[in-house]
Write a structure and sequence with these properties.
The protein is built from five helices and no strands. The chain is an all-alpha fold.
Length: 174
């Protein structure tokens, strides 16, 4: 017998039906009211039929439980095998990532090392003074990029900037 949930539901219905037959035969309202004294009131023939029917159901139920236990063991084994496979795959991926990281780190380290050796000969040593000079050069370049050149306008030494600004505003405001 193969285990399935449908078989389990079928067995439940059969057992419920047999319980209802016993309850009806001993003339009580529910299974919890069935006692030894209520069963003793039955004749031997109906009692024998009830016992035979219940024994058949018990045997079927025992077989169903064995199949269910076997199915659960199989599912556990399958799950463990799947988890082991998943762990192996994750380990393989981690090893691959580790190798990639190591090779990339080495290659970047090699590039820096090579460039560092070449550039140390050609580049000035980084000092506070060289940093200040670089900042000044950048600031000067930014300031000059904001200057306005008007072609055809004669630039005079220290010309009154006011006149230039006034002329530029007239041109651009219109």
């Amino acid at each position: 017998m193969d285990f399935s949930v449908d078989l389990l539901y079928t067995m439940e219905k059969k057992m419920t039906s047999e319980i209802q037959k016993v309850v009806k035969a001993v003339n009580v309202s529910c299974a919890s009211e069935v006692t030894e004294s209520t069963l003793m009131k039955l004749n031997k023939n109906p009692l024998a039929q009830i016992v035979t029917s219940l024994l058949g159901l018990i045997e079927q139920n025992v077989e169903l439980c064995k199949c269910a236990a076997g199915k659960m063991d199989q599912l556990k084994s399958d799950k463990i095998a799947d988890q082991k496979l998943l762990i192996e795959l994750q380990q393989t991926q981690m090893n691959s990532v580790q190798e990639t990281v190591k090779s990339e780190m080495k290659s970047w380290a090699d590039v820096v090392k090579k460039n560092g050796n070449v550039n140390q000969r050609n580049v000035k040593q980084l000092t506070e003074n060289t940093v200040k000079q670089a900042v000044r050069a950048v600031n000067e370049e930014k300031r000059r990029s904001k200057n306005l050149m008007i072609y055809g306008w004669q630039e005079k030494e220290k010309e009154a900037d006011f006149e230039v600004i006034k002329a530029a505003k007239e041109v651009f405001d219109e």
